Please model this.
Amino acid sequence: MKIVVINGQNHKGSTWKIGNILADKLSGDQEIREYFLPRDLNHFCCGCYSCLEARERCPYWSEKAPFFEDMLAADLLIFTSPTYCMMPSAPMKAFLDLFFTNWMMHRPVKDMFSKRAVVISTAAGAGAGKTTKLIADNLMNWGIPEVTRYGIAVNAMNWEMVPEKIKTRIERDTDRIAAKIQRKKQVHVGIKTKGLFLFYRGMQLADWGASKAEKQYWEEQGWLSKARPWKKD
Ligand SMILES: Cc1cc2nc3c(=O)[nH]c(=O)nc-3n(C[C@H](O)[C@H](O)[C@H](O)COP(=O)(O)O)c2cc1C
Model:
């Protein structure tokens, strides 16, 4: 199993630690590629919309390409972000902005429809659930059919401060998430993903997409005819 971990922070605190525990539990002959933000992608979207013409036209594509290629090759994506002001960290938000072209309403990527993702956040007290939801909503809109959210209040500013009782709970919860991922071999594409895709397909057919190039992309994939991204070619 190939795993890509995208950390919305440079430091190795509680949130990173939980992602790391989970990745270890999925061990076997898995390959893990790990990124830290902003260390590995230190940009904000500049709103030029060049990516709507072609993904590669983003001014930051050379730095984004390794993420994109690794994500395409991965079976499982793990996103981690501490909760900051009841939201994902700013670097994680910047990352999602930089990949907004992945949204189904623009240029969905076929390979995303066969992936799993886990989104992890910690908060001192409140907001981890909201943080995981905001990130998971993006991934659902990328077409990833199975997104597991894990948000937990750790009552701490770093991993060393996390009470033993909470660490025990994290062990138990990550065991459960790892077992669930290992148990299911086939990714199930549910009605929500299919429904969203068909809705955006309707928009492209009605010429309500963002550009001519975008519609052409849909046409080239065969999605305006019979092909569907979750079906084998
Ligand atoms: C800028 C900033 C904003 C924060 N906002 C919240 C918050 O909204 N809710 C909360 O419960 N904790 C908040 N915290 C605390 C962190 O979410 C918490 O300590 C988290 O476990 C840190 O994860 P880390 O160890 O991976 O850095 C905030 C911390 C910082 C530095």
Remarks:
- The pocket of flavin mononucleotide is lined by residues 13-16, 82-86, 122-127, 154, 156-158 (CB under 6 Å).
- The longest strand covers residues 116-123.
- The radius of gyration is 18 Å.
- The helical segments are 14-25, 61-73, 90-98, 128-141, 164-183, 191-205, 212-221.
